[in-house]
Amino acid sequence: MIKGKRLLVVSAHAADYVWRSGGTIAKYIQEGAEVCVVVLTFGVRGESNDLWKAPGATAESVKEVRKGETLAAAEILGVKNIEFWDYDDYPIVVDKALEERMVRKIREFAPDYIISHDRFDILNPDHNTVSDLVFRCSVMSNSNGVKMEGTKTTKQMQIFGFEPHQTELSHYVPGQFIDITPVYEKKVAAMKCFKAQSHLIEYYTQRAFMRGNHARRLSGCQDYKYAESFARTFPVVSTELL
């Protein structure tokens, strides 16, 4: 049952959440979940190479383009609750203030699920930094000993990792497949908003097709045409085998 669930998505850069979980986000919103997306940086320094080729490009001009792209993508996916924390990228530097802000966000939103970067991306240390940040802050948010005025401690939520670019090189192992067939066209349209990383449009289009194949094979459901995959941080706990 998706309706009424709370999903927090933490994205290192402006487009990460779209490439890697846009279909799942759109599906959850469409089926009545509460979704909040936190974008830590616009990816100005490290993920906007094509935009820097424009004559007279500056950090501010690149940021404006990236913000416009991600807002357009979010609208297509149906995201109403999106926050831009506007930190610098390449590298993302985690200090006490950022850590406390993330703990507070997790406590205030109290998600059932968090989706963020998986533990290792061979090509992008920012993704690894954010994966570690989100995991540590989720643990701290559960601790009564971590005092933070105006907040309540949370219970352990499930944490899922994005499928990275260069999947095999990053030793990524899928632990969950989500059928995104009903919202697949929304994801494709959202991906097309990002002109600075057009090479990833084809990559994640192919991934959706391939993961759909895996979803059909593993489930036996032939209606699953397109899917997204995520790594699991914690095992499933249940009263029966799933």
Description:
With 242 residues, this protein is of the alpha/beta class. It is built from 6 helices and 7 strands. The longest helix is centred in the C-terminal third of the chain and has 21 residues.
Write the layout of secondary structure elements.
Elements: E1 6-11, H1 16-30, E2 34-41, H2 59-77, E3 81-87, H3 96-109, E4 113-116, H4 125-141, E5 158-161, E6 176-179, H5 184-191, H6 199-219, E7 227-232
Question: Tags for this entry?
Answer:
242 residues; alpha/beta; Rossmann fold; seven-stranded mixed β-sheet; 7 strands; 16% strand
Which residues sit in consecutive blocks of at least 5 with pLDDT less than 50? none
Strand content: 15-25%
Q: What does the radius of gyration come to?
A: 18 Å
Q: Round the mean pLDDT to the nearest integer and report it.
A: 97
Instruction: Tell me roughly what share of residues is in helical segments.
Output: 25-40%
Strand order of the largest sheet: 3-2-1-4-5-7-6
Count the beta strands: 7
How many structurally independent domains? 1
Q: What count of helical segments does DSSP give? A: 6
Q: Which class best fits the helix and strand makeup?
A: alpha/beta
Note the gap between the termini: 15 Å
CATH-scheme architecture:
3-Layer(aba) Sandwich
Q: Give the topology string: H per helix, E per strand.
A: EHEHEHEHEEHHE
Brief write-up:
39% of the residues lie in helices and 16% in strands. It is of the alpha/beta class and 242 residues long.
